[in-house]
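Issue: copy button drops trailing tokens. Both records pasted manually instead:
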Amino acid sequence: MSELPLRVAGGVWRLNDKGECELKLAIHAGLHKTASSSFQFLCRAFEDKLLVEGICYPKYDRGENFSYLANALQRGKTDELEFVLRQAASEVSETDTVLISGEDFENCLIDHDLARALEDVAYRLGFDQLEWFFVYRNPLDYLKSIYGEMSKHNVCLNIEDVAGEIFENGYFCVENENYRYKFVFDFFQFFDSFSAVTNNNCEAIEYENFCAPFPGHEMLRRISLSEDYLNHIKRSEISKRKFNTRLTIEETEIRYALNALGIPFSQENWHENKSKLMPLVNGRIDSYNNLIPQIGEKFANLFDNGRAPGAANPKNVRKR
């Protein structure tokens, strides 16, 4: 992008080996329930300072989460993505890296056409480099969190059915009126495949590493945020806040019971229906508690999310 002005970030010219400015796009693509909401809040809270440091977290009228762009791409619409990236690229005199974060881009691990659609738009608008970042966690912890989270999204899931789909495919799908979600559990199986189709322009970060000492620290470090400013964020009170924490299993099953009847969750609606729904809720809680240890054992045999990206996975013996 030789026609675009260069800038100094932290007193250092950010150039490629040919002495040219490179506009980069960093995509934080989840996974879901890996402190994405907290990271997005931090990026929005510090957006002005990040810009000075050479990282643009674009202004977006839908808030700090860019997942809607994935939703639009799934429907074949690129206009909003183009608008966001074009606006961000216009600020290249202020930055050399544009960062977007949306956990719904997790789908790209399976739906490579979705990833290609994003990359095609970015390269057409003049971005020189793209880098994908995925945060993964223990599969059983991930299941517990996703199972709780989806009860807020007007669907009704059964833990046994969800686990069965994961055993069979390494992921499970659920759809509501807004999006068809694909939640990845055999992470490295799909990450390695994604890496192959994106010319290895992707990185995996383990959940605990991503969160310490604050959500997103490791990713921001990898996209060259200065150590001084990382420490500045670390010292802030904002970095200690947590968002969208996991529901208890009772809270989860109450929502699923109401969802099954088409009743929106509220305390008032729950109290009105509690007497007839409580036996169902208690039965589902008992089933969940009985099945979770068995599911955990099967996950341990099927998935090896402790290995390094690209390494062989001898524990994965499922037939595809």
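Record 2 (pasted manually too):
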Amino acid sequence: MYDISAIYEASSVENAVKLRQEHPDAVIIAGGSDVLIKIREGKLSGAELISIYGLSDLRGVTMGEDGTIRIGSLTSFSHITKDPLIREHIGVLGEAVDLVGGPQIRAIGTIGGNTCNGVTSADSASTLFAWDAVVELTGPEGVRNVPIEEFYLSAGKVDIREGEIQTAILIPKESWEGYKGHYIKYGMRRAMEIATLGCSVNVRLSEDKKTLTSLRIGFGVAGPVPRRARSTEQAFTNVPLTEDLPKEIGRAVLADVNPRDSWRAPKDMRLHLCSVMAERAFIEAARLSGTDLYGKAEGRGSSFMCGSREGQGDTEAGHQTSEAAEHQTDSRENSGTGSTPAACEAGGEAR
């Protein structure tokens, strides 16, 4: 059922780096919620695997003396959602990963695998972009820190060099202090669904709650890789909070996105979603920051739905097959670049 030629179990980060050098074509596996599906489907037949599942040093959330939040790459989605530091300082990340798959997937899937697969639909990706996250990579030459925007190279391809593994996601204090955020996921179902579009908005308001001093907007599936709405962010820095502001932001983001047509949704629909979701996520982020612009809140991490909730009974495998199809389509239509062994670092699973 699983055609695996060899599996090597890393005893430490240093040992994992050594194994990567000795077996450059091997695939990293931790939770395995994506890698094992690919092996079963024959896409990684005969693969060599390097297991890093036993590296407990890569699990958990901590805060450094400088206020940097460090999320170990093997930290599961369910751990992130429940972690006190996440809830207190960057709660929107916990809400975003709580929309991944189902409970089984969230218990085994890792934040490292979710980012290292390089897929634009990953629920953590747009949120991490909005937090100005930094990816920590450890390799033969030591530790290398890469801004997450530079980490994603193209559809299904990330900046992991020979011998490296991803060891952590870092959120600097200046990136989270004073900000509140909200994430919205659009999908056809309430569970076991890949995002048709994801939007994460972080805001920082003045002390009197009358001025938007800083805005960050991250999108998933609005291009071949997750992206920031940079021109919109610059245009709406230090502006008064008005009732018209959300719609103005919603219109402005259209200049920052480049979604495609796919079997999930046409480009025009995704453009409409970009505008509406940015508007609504901003309204909720502003409410969380202390300003209720319209007296109506979106609530916790949200999913837009069209259709019924009948899909909740779908299986984990069905979800994974659906994601694999979307990933293939992303790679083929956006860049012609498929996954590489390097793109499967720190868990090798998008879920």
